[in-house]
Amino acid sequence: MKSIFSLIAMVALFCLPAYAQKDENNRIRNAGKVMVEILNVPDDIPADLLNKAECVIVLPSVMKFAIGFGGSYGRGVMTCRSGNDFSGPWSAPSMMALEGGSFGFQLGGQATDFVLLVMNKRGADSILTSKVKLGGDMAAAAGPKGRSAAASTDVTMRAEILSYSRSRGLFAGISLEGSTLRPDNDGNERLYGKGITAKDVVINSAIHAPASAKLLVSTLNRKSPSNRSDK
Fold first, then answer.
1. Is the N or the C terminus of the chain less surrounded, counting Cβ atoms within 10 Å?
2. Could you report the per-residue pLDDT of 97-116, keeping only the tens digit for each?
3. How far apart are alpha carbons 131 and 186 in whole angstroms?
4. Which one-letter DSSP state was computed for residue 151?
């Protein structure tokens, strides 16, 4: 009997990391699908804003876990233009987590997809190295949408993060003030190995993108191949 329990424990030890890694790869694949669907609609995220973004965060199917006042938790991925000056191709994705109070973005428990544009180096460095509070540690605003969106407004120009949501087929800019973003270090460890930080993945280019990231990275490289932000 003792040997049977030992065998079960050994199987679990070897199999659980594989199952966990599968979850991370599914998260990356879902993020790629969300990015394709949103960028294929011309009146959603303005192309000039995407072209000026240093990084993109995609959080598929964020769920609210309480009705009325409650909280929300979502997991997704962050990819940046590679290199210290954010001028290279889009990087391998780092796992990310969104946590916070009730945002008022859902009806009846409907899952919501988020796309966040990180507009400057300070914002990228902050998110990749620590837990940041949107609207507190970092200036955040609902992103404008549409081909003729006034992307030069004071709010847009000052924001370090521009946030968008999609729920029940409707796409809109949304404020996420009061919520927090942080690297999902456990997810990165499961996917890439122990000791790999979010910054190693997306800035230091120490990691090759997994096969699951092909759709996400290729879509961004095709839609926004060069960084057109003011340096």
1. N
2. 998 755 554 444 567 899 99
3. 14
4. T
